[in-house]
Give the backbone structure.
Amino acid sequence: MDSVPRGPEQRRSGSSTEPGALRFGVLGPVRAWRDGEPVATGSPQQRALLAALLLREGRTATAAELIDALWGEEPPSQALAAVRTYASRLRKVLDPGVLVSESGGYAVRGLGEGALDLAAAQELAAEAEKARNTGDLCHARDVLNRALSLWDGETLAGVPGPYAEAQRVRLEEWRLQLLESRLDMDLEQGCHAEAVSELTALTAAHPLRERLRELLMLALYRSGRQAEALAVYADTRRLLADELGVDPRPGLQSLQQRILRADPGLAEPSAPMAEPVAVPVRPAQLPATVPDFTGRASFVRELSGVLASASGDEARVMAVSALAGIGGVGKTTLAVHVAHAARASFPDGQLYVDLQGAGSRSAEPETVLGSFLRALGTADSAIPDSLEERAALYRSVLDGRKVLVLLDNARDAAQVRPLLPGTAGCAALVTSRVRMVDLAGAHLVDLDVMSPEEALALFTKIVGEERVGSEREAALDVVAACGFLPLAIRIAASRLAARRTWTVSVLAAKLADERRRLDELQAGDLAVKATFELGYGQLEPAQARAFRLLGLADGPDISLAAAAAVLDLPAEDTEDLLESLVDTSLLESAAPGRYRFHDLVRLYARACAERDEQPPSEREAAMSRLLDFYLATAVGVYAIERPGDRLVDGLEPTEHPGLVFTDGSAALDWLYTEASPLLAAVRQAAGTDRLRRGVDLLWAAKDLTESGANSHQYETTARAMCDATRAAGDARAAGRARTVLTDVLLVSGRIQQAEEEARLAMELADSVRDATAVSWVANNRGLICLHQHRYSAGKVLFHQAIEGFRATGNRAGEASALSNLSRAQLGMGNITEAVEIARHGLAVYLEMGRTMRLANGHFAVGVALAKAGRHNEALGQFSEAVSIFAGHRQRLWEGATNFRIAEVHLAAERPSHAAQHAEQALALGCIGGDRTRGNVLALLGRALSALGQADRANACWREAVSLLEQNSAPEVSEVRALLTPVT
């Protein structure tokens, strides 16, 4: 790294100083630059003279004033001569005319705009104040951050003399005032969670600064950490009494009382949270309305009236309208039409989601909330994990906005409730096959079939007035045969419109057989099936085959590449077929390159496959190709992320190829995008000959649980495969399924459950001599021993894993086991051996290149070095690890590394840094779930205690004890002992 100090132009953009001009810095060491190159400013006393002149902003300083500035009341006998010498030397290195002699003194003149970092900071601070006064908080925050970035360490660092000391104090006070102003604006914009870490460090550095304590209390309270907020006040009151013999100022006392009362005025920021963009995010997610929308006039008026009442100036409550009716009755079409008509009343945006309530696996509310929050401009890092927290944040983001939410195809009221806005001005439209009588306050609408007149009008709009007008009776026969169901009418009319040689009578005659019987058309889903039969019957053979086979896959949607695998066709031909099915409304285009069935259409497609697909083995072959596609692609992603890991060599072979990636980021994009369809394919392998491949696919996609992105869905699938393999009596597949489940349980910190699953996995893997599984299970069992503090047993298991990995040439596995063995040696007190073993593991990882698992090697070395007391070396290793984890989207590992960094800082007696990194670990989450969170809170408490914040420390320890007790963690007694009464 270049060690030359940065010039001001390297720390700030936007300067108008001309090239070649001098620049000066006093907000740090006193320095000068010309064209970014440092200019020698001489001895400390010479720099003190330069600083005194720069800070006078062009005014002349007499020789006496300069002598007093440099030496105070005890100047040397040759002080005047020294001043003249310093001035002469400075003239030689500065531009002509910059340092001038005047009236027996000196001055610095002729500097360009922005040439002095202090002047630039003053200009930016004035601009920020002006922006704040006009309400432009985003710009004010940005400008203040630019001003604060001009500081480069301690002001006037290393400059002697009483004048420099006085200016240091003055400018540091000003910097803190700017920082407080910026943090105040952070809280005004709702960035309280992000501010906690910074405020914790600042209050530790400036314990008597009450404004920082006040901001920290408010940030903690708004982050849902009321106990800690009150503990900060208690710590502050005790500190002020001990150090100064005074009570907190009235503002701080008032804030404590408001927190105790749960004052609603504190719950939300005074200004809405905003991203630093010129235009707020306004989602417009409504699907396109159909151009031939027909009838439903009374329903349109009714629903429009409800929405108008919600968006009006006198609105008191959020409006909810729930449309119910059988499948195909037109609920979605009506809701979308009404929503488009009401868009002007909801200028802040419209949200839409298909909740997939009619299928076997409806959308999870927490997943939908995550999508909605992103659409509303919330960063991924700010979206919490739990359903309750996401719902609360969602309602907060919508507060003060006028947004319409369309929740389509809901399963029941329980699925809908977390997705409803919470304030007046917003409204929700819900469609469902069930009548939501238990959705409190909802305006219920029962949507029946069309009237004969409306049905005929819709049919006529699609087919054309000319063709229908001459065969009106036949047209009435057609819509009656369709049961007046809009979806059935639309499909039938679209087919007729696409075939110019057909007459309406021909279509009516086709509907006269038993497939079109009115009793079937009126019998719930059978009515929809009869309508689909009409559309299906008009497909070309290739289209019909694609329709049948694609309906076999369980995922919420399917990519073009996966569809090509199902159909065993080139991607271009597959796209042509799928787009033609989209045109017939039998398939939907979910996004570019992605397709989905309506739930009922999928069921019908499967029925067609069971009835029509010949030979029947083709259905199994299609699903086998889909599973092969996912497995082959996932294996490729695994190999990119973990080169040298021979796990992939022990997986089931595939006959159909997958996608090939050369870029790690693109590979991960595919894995996370395909998570739901991929896991659905795994579940569908249960009870079939594809069982082993399904389990191996789950194993190859283990990043889905380690990243924390799809943990719940992954665990559900792992448990399903454990049940399926047990039922099938397949010991090899069962051993691997339980190995995968052990991984899941270890990541989430459920050690007792992991121990039982690992025991079963080892018995099964041993029974069939599955060397691949045996090594990984031994490694997992060793990790379990580490959690249980059974280090000797863990050492034995890690040696067993290392031997197994070496026997199969699995270098990555060997490196993993070596890294873990290092931790066992640490637990046994063998620190020197632990460092050597960890470095050996890192060396093996390095042989395989800069991959994700290299971060685990750095992590293990960091842990060992930290235990050895080599703190700076440990921090270097952890810095490498956290960078790699972040680049590979391993959020939980990134959090775990921040936890370890916090441990090092605390051991090195840097509690403020420890608290800051512990807060980051809490925000990210950690490998080990609630148990690790408990340990992070315990460490945060220790750091806060060292900073004199005993009440907040106790609040952290109480929560830590609760989490550790829930997980039967052996370290709970140690944390419980930290809890002491606060006097």
Observations:
- Residues 1-17, 270-279, 514-528 have pLDDT under 50 and may be disordered.
